[in-house]
User: Fold these one by one.
Assistant:
Number 1:
Amino acid sequence: MANDLEGIIEQIHSKLNIADIIGAYIPLKQAGRNFKACCPFHHEKTASFVVSPVKGIYHCFGCGAGGDMISFVMKHEGLEFMEALRLLADKAGIALSGIKGNYRHGSPAGRSSAGLYRVNQLAVEYYNAVLLASAKAAAGREYLARRGLNAESVGFFKIGYASGEWDGLLKYAKSKGVSESVLQKAGLVMPGKNNGFYDRFRARAIFPIFDMRSRVVAFGGRTLDDSLPKYMNSPESEIYVKGRHLYGLNLAIDEIRKKDYVIIVEGYLDLILPFQNGIKNIVATLGTALTIEQIRLIKRFTENAVIVYDADAAGEAASLRGLDLLVSEGLFVRVATLDKGDDPDSYVRRQGAEGLIKIVDSAPNLFDYKLTLLLNKYNPAHSEDKARITAEMLPTIKRIENSVLRSDYIKRLSKTLFVQEDVLLDELSKIKSDYSSISESKSAISVNRIPPAEKIIINLMMEEEAIARNVRTVLDIEEFASADIRRIVDVIYRLLDENKIPSGRKVIERIGDEGLSSIIYEAFEESEKLVDRRKTLHDCVVRVKRDCLARKEQTLTTMIKQAESAGDDDKLMKLIKQLDALSSERI
């Protein structure tokens, strides 16, 4: 049955052109080999919605919507997968007799991801049922009630409870036919003694974490007292990468667009209590510093952000780095600080939603917020402190793209510190614009930092099978510098091994990762600029090989210096021979 479904999906894509399907709903204008339009999923004046018939995908660079023709029809018509499939099958003249059931849209070959979504959904149902009905969850129900959550919020956010049993979820899942290996891949169980397993979450309130499509990708568990660790999150998995999700974003999108700003808080309850009281344009970072991916998710829906900090977190270096990242990505940032001892959920319980909104509305912009912090920390009457304030303020100003704003902030800093503007501008010019070290998160990788040659290569590989097979013969996965590109290339190579055409549609479906999919979406226009595609491919392959060789030479050079310092002559000679051998490979 699965193979029949896969075959039908392939027939639909081979018989129908995605530009024709989408063009029946919205007016498309040809732009090279692609088509452009104003996005039908959000209001915009400048066309940022692109359709690629070659890759079989569409993407909006404004709101981030993307997928294939099936997902477009589902989203535009408000249909379930099988309903959209039947509609397109009718257009293609394909019979669907014998296909039954409600299938999740995605590549049947990528069923491991679908299996993780299913087991996570099973876990949600289990934890929620325990919370609502089990005598063992009395403490959990009392805790949530004490924190002010009502029954509607518990149901809406699918909150649950993990009892103190070592294998409560494990037994339940196995009774439903779920294997221990799948539970382990989902991060729901951990290996124990004698090749056994036990539940990861025990004696904790459970908060499911959803992606933008409202699929459960992970869980957070909070203790009911002050025992440590207070919070425990799922480990990273095939469907969950820390730093690429924002708690509550799937529920907040419409309200964020409507109000044109987002409120960013830290934890589950910091979000749930305001949401319960009517503040819907709110997301939570789950206790981590903001990453590039999270910020770009926000920017799909608004360019205005208000961060709400409690007094303890307000001046932390990690918090300020996150704010600078927001500015670097072109967002307008304001910062609201609560009184000591308050956080958003306790403040709303005491002052109501109106009280929190009042603080949000009066929040100062990032410049004023940061300058106030520094003036409280240092004494501007002292030259050394004046220099420290300048050193911390100028990098933030440097990240502001708007020239008018940047000029105004320089003037204001000049007046505050009694330092001439030209002196500040001179110091500003010394600051490098490379902020690659701002975020320490592995997942906070900027698409713009991916080598251009590598982006062009994956674009061309997803356009022509012959190119993909040619690249396969000359480039190993390890020769690509970007870890994200290596993961994409690995999928392309596996599709080739299965004798399948590695189109953009298939690669995105197989990957099942929003972060990597966004790289493909954001990069797929690159090839439109190419004049001689074959020559460009050759040049890019040569560049990737040269860069890989340079990285290897740098590593060996470093090891040689270490061997010299350690006086290890044998190792030194081996390393020098390796370096000589590498040099002979230079193209």
Note: The chain is about 50% helix and 10% strand.
Number 2:
Amino acid sequence: MSRERKAIGQVTAADSEKGVTVHLGRELRVEQLRLGQFVVVENPEAQFFGTVSGLRLGANDAGVTSDPPASGSRLVREALARGTTFAECTIHLDLEVTTGERQPARTIPSHFSSVALADETDVQVVFGDEQKEGFFAVGTPCDASRKETGQPVCIDLRKFVERSNGIFGRSGTGKSMLARLLLCGVIDRGQAVNLIFDMHNEYATYRETEAGLKVKGLRDIFGAKKIKVYTLDAESSRRSGRSNDGVVLIPYSSLTLGDLEALEEEMRLSGQAVTTGTLLQRKWGRDWIGRLVADDRDAKEISEETGANSGSIDALRRSLQKLERFDFMVQGSKDDSGIKRMIDELKQGNNVILEFGRHESTLAYMLVSTLVTRQIHEAWVDQSERYERSQSKVDKPQQLVITIEEAHKFLNNKDTIFGTIAREMRKYAVTLLIIDQRPSSIDPDVMSQLGTRVTALLSDAHDIEAVFTGVYGGRHLKDTLATLDTRQEALVFGHAVPMAVAIHTRSFDDKFTNGLNTRLGSGRDPRTVGSNGNGNGSHEAEEDLFG
């Protein structure tokens, strides 16, 4: 070895599909290795980086395993271990480095190549340095010797924001904290502006975790100049003492038939709802939903006026009247200026959090998120086309990341506005950050378009299968995923990292957030490419806040 790494053994066999077999050294106990551990294979021709994907015991004499020594015979066991029994591991190769050039592993190492545990320099070589522009530390390699201490694993934020990404994990594994961590990186390094649909009012200001610990919100960290907070519930904001920059009201006239189609399941709309709505819109114009909700005439009378079936009118009206319980839905001449102001804030480079106040129902979340995202889609497509014509920097659209939770509700159909963004909006500088515990309910075409996936522990077999949709080498990654702890550990793989890696995630504590605060004065505007890139590099856990 060129450096004093901890050697673990030598290559004795290799298969480009099944992986590399390593005969472990006699001085190494197999219990010291873990699935997913980061290793280096080195020979004169190339250096390979990979992870441990399997462990097994073997024996040169089958009689030893068929008639093992007594459990108390330590001397016999040690004697057999020196010459008769052995241990092996399998390595999944991810990268190879030849003549200083790093690329995906397309060959295999030769017999007896040396294998060692990766050291801190290797982690930095592969995953980058937080001191460099665009890189952000998300944790440290996930083995017992490195938790919160070793060289940090970084993601390339420039690659991260240019594609849609997913954060997955079962309930209680810290998905929201992972999202908050990544959003801090994106905001701090100025890689994109962010729109966060905050269903549970937890991203802007201090919140208390399940463990009873208080965690800073994005507005607490970055201040009111960078983080704008809008709300659907002004009364709730007043009662809780939370400040906001505007109230969002939604006139019925701003809803479209497409919005209703996206809400078909939540509103329990009949199969004739769109046909009926089309007829009413043709007769009454853009404000047909508001008119139908407020119209107390008999359905037969409305049917005679519009030509729609009276039974379908009754069914549609009952479904639409569910919207009346939302005080952000308004009739008459009031417009959606709150949404327009939010879009203007985003265009100006400000990050926006939309709080839902008391309106924490899935229907309210889907209704508002769908409508706002549709308008953003229209605005960004228009600006992108304008920029394409003018090639003026003034017209270039902001790189925008939209964060949504309960994502499977929006993405179970690739034809929704969110499915369109996941598939097509990269060219218009809009991507998604989706947070979900049921990836199996997300359309496979959408899953396959996700650039980077950060996956905490999952238990359902269908969810595990779904999260690896379209991923090469998914089988060995499933085994690594199964070994993760329930808190503060995740598997990161995809576009923003050069290889898959299991990490102990960075703690979202005061040391981390104060480190971000020290850089705010020199951070670049998100309208420019890159960032100041001054990393904190601190990974000492003061408290586990990933409950």
Note: The two ends are 41 Å apart (CA to CA).
Number 3:
Amino acid sequence: MIQGRESRGRVVAPGRDRLRAPQSPQTGGSVVDRRNILFCMALFLLAAAATCPVLEMGVNDDWSYAHIAREFAATGHLAYNGWPVMPLVPQIVWAAVFIRLFGFSFLIVRLSTVVLGALCIPVLYCLGRESGLVPPFAAFATLLTALSPLTMPEAVTFMSDVPAFFLFALCFYGGVKCWKAAGAKDCARWAGLILVAGVLSGLDRQIYWLGPLLFLPAVAWVQRRRKSAMMWLAAAWLAAISAAAYSVRWFQAQPHALIEPSLNAWKRMGLRRLAGPSLSLAATMAATLALVLLPLLAGYVAPALKAASRKAALLTAVGALAGGFAASHLLHLDAPWMGNVLTAYGICPGNLLGTWREVLGPTVRDLLTMAVFLSCASSGLTLWNRRGAAGAQPWQDPSIPALVLGLVFSAAWLPILIYHSADAQPFDRYLMSFLPLFAIPLLRHYQARIGKSVSRVSWAMLALFALYGVAATHDAFARARAVLTAAQTLELRGIPRTEITAGFEYDGWTQLEAGGYVNHWDIANPPGAYRPPTCTGPPAVRLWFITFAPAIRARYVVAASRLPELDDAPAAPVDYTTWLPPGRRQVFTLMIPGGGYVQCR
């Protein structure tokens, strides 16, 4: 099904511009392209259904976003609630359409995200084709992103990552097309897409303002000899920066909207202290990105070792494997690195009291770490050895626009995230947008200089990663359903919800329903909304979120394991089944001994 020949487009005469890429043929329009897009969308929807995201409770942060969407659908007003640091406007409006059509439920708002994930597939596929990838390579690049264990858990929740990424992908595609535009009218049309999609993506997550603010000047440099095109690009850039400035001021003025704490980090910490952990964080992000790109990078190993001399191949393999082993065993820096979505304990654990059992054991983590080191070393060796093998005009390659725009975006995004990490832990899901940015140029290089078909090793690892992502996401929802069942069992016995703590997501919704907003210290408007809490009760059983939820006076605790500080409640443990080992698990209902409680009022 995924097949086709490479299209050879004609080069548009660029004058003396070296950065002008060839005009690509129409992408995504052939029978093979349409069939591949439909096939990729079907695989994505099948994988999403297999995770069984049926759960009337929040996942990660989406309880807060779902509450905003419900209120917007009912009142037409955006009412923030003390938790989001992003405007979320397009995502909320999109979900409100589903709520008005089908009624509110957590499943309905999650399905709105699934639809956007499916719509993202033709954008990613056409982006690959526009960058010179033949249909099998374009399909691989699309599935590498859509079925990634980093993407799938977010695509079946109401988190903001996938909606914002979909709009960013449209903005990125507009940038590539605008770069290659042959006339002023085409350039103006694609600049309009950059502007609209970029503004909307920034209205969801502010970091994506970088898209229009950076892509438009980069394209303007390429189109600088066309005065009419320059006028359209300049107008679009001014509109984008005006929209960004207005939206930031508007969001900061909204009641119970959080002000990004890292904006003033340099005043409290000093630039010298901020610069300290930057190198370590950059290395961690690079290793995490290499991990999620491993299905692609693994395809470089055999060609690299085969093309190199015996001595070079031996040194590369032994050195990479030894480095991976040392990082895992001596430095205790084994995969996965950044955390939040991909962890040793599965997808998004840690929001429930108790002890978790590992899903990825030490042996698996060691193998992943060494595989990342070996794949990166092999890829680097191949890129170095073949750096001049493609002819005298490498800047004429159709992947150059995607490569340059991706590097421009990355060069601005990385220092911003490092600075942001001064006040907030960076999460691996922030790297989602870099999957196509890096995958497309690497696949184009492989296609042009190494092989005419995607490596079987790459396809096999892609399938393995996709299966893990689906299974781990399924298990996360199974665990959450068990937690909700345990909490609802207490509610059916007449125990108020405010006397139950059942993890971050359950408690967050309780606080919003009972208190109206989360008691967060970064709320600046209205003044005095945040009230410093005083906590009572056993410290060992306080979930970290309890300080944000003064409406909860917990006497009962739903936990992942029994805790020595607590007694068993008169409710049996709730069993649930997972696809990943050990297969059978339980959540427990416990109570504070002696009629005590935990509260931060």
Note: The radius of gyration is 25 Å.
Number 4:
Amino acid sequence: MQSKTKNCQNCKNDFMIESDDFSFYEKMKVPAPTFCPHCRFVRRMIWRNERSLHKRKCDMCQKNIISMYDDKVIFPVYCPECYQSDKWEGSQYAQNYDFSKSFFEQWRDLFNKTPKQSRLLYGQCLDCEFTNFVKDGKNVYLSCSVLGSEWIYYSSNLDYSKEIIDSYNISKSEFLYENMGVEQNYNCKYTYWSSGCVDCDFVLDCNNCSNCFGCVNLRNKNYCIWNKQYSKEEYEEKIKEFNIGSYSFVEENLNKFWDFSLQFPRKYLRIVNCVDSIGDELRDCKNVKYSYKAYDCENIKYGHRVTYAKDSMDVCHSWAELAYENAFGGSENCLNIKFIISGDKAVNESEYYDACRSSSSLFGCVGLKNKKYCILNKQYTKEEYDKIIPKIKQHMDDMPYIDSKGRIYKYGEFFPTELCPFGYNESMINDHFPLTKEEIIERGYPYKERVDNQYSVTLKAKDIPDDIKDIDDSILNEVIECEVSKRAFKITPFELQFYKRMNIPIPQLHPDERYKARIKLRNPMVLYHRPCMKEGCNNEFETTYAPERLEIVYCEECYKKEVY
């Protein structure tokens, strides 16, 4: 089928469905979407709440827990131990399919009575009470989307790393503070989109460098300050002049560093060892299009934080093959899955499910494991299942769900956002595309008011001693008021030990404010068509740098000539 322009029923903007897209839809046996790629991404990510945690009780054991669900949700919420136990199973909530009601109404009834896990912890996790979306973690605190890592504080999107604070999108690294988009870094502070760096501070787009300060676009360099080469002895003597343990020094030099970086060209996209791919922060990918933070993937379109995924479209946090509209969850060893909220291991040939694992041939199910041929959690024979599924899909077309904004949900649409238990403002989508309360409500998305715990402040952030050398253990007893948000926070023993060892000043902002400042450094998940800014070059490309930005943006060929 040829490419076709359609009008998004959500934002009312036109979008293009390419001929290859139609081939994928035909392969997956789904109709073409009626929402544009951006609105489909928004619709999925509203269901992922990583960082908004609440105090409540487990509805099974009654112990006090930390949960991504507040105590006002309709459904039961279990602590990870109770949820993963054999004390309950999803089939006890099974219901018959009712052809007098729309599918999504019936699914909502099932969703609202089936228990949910308070926080998503997988594998072997130890001392990860104040975390979410962690697998095989140890001593992880107020961090999320963490895999195989330990001693991780106030960070997100980390894989196989150790002793890291206030960082984002990190892989195979150790002893980092305020790093972003790095791989295999060691003992680095304020380091961005660099790899293989050791003992570096304030560096951007540097690879395989050590003992560098305030540098941009370096390759295989040692002992450089503001991109100037020094001898080892000169570097060590010069670096003594820099009091990196001083908060005022760090603030001054961060501003100086970002101003300095504008003198150097940026590569149009952050892509490493990729073939026929477009997006940002892609590594070792083949034919990955309009995707962000993807590694070791093949034939992916509209992906976000996908790893080892293949032949899929509209997938987030996915490791599956032949997946479509996957909101989150690793989905390891999954094949041919469609319309998934929270994915899990080893699910095949299934649609419209949440939190199911080790199962196949499911439709509209919640919280099942080790099941086959189930609809709305009810068990069927293979013959019964194969007979009723086409009737349900036809029923979804004949009696669609229509939400409060008049958006029509037939078969082939992801779950309506108004069924989601999270507010837009507390879900992950607000990090990527923030909206005001008024905008959220006007667009028909769910919104939730935030209620902060009240603490008696004992120390204003501005009164914290400037230099880490002047900090003693008494800081552990202080309740600090953030200068920006006026919210209270504390310093933990591990933090203090980490800051002293790495010569880092005590932060003066609440962890949430530090997170907001950090993610502002990311380029948006939007592509702009632009020419290369190198004089004499006629190349054009798609880039995440908007035309009005101050950075110098080069095509790949010109960038390589500049840095190598």
Note: DSSP finds twelve helices and 40 strands in the chain.
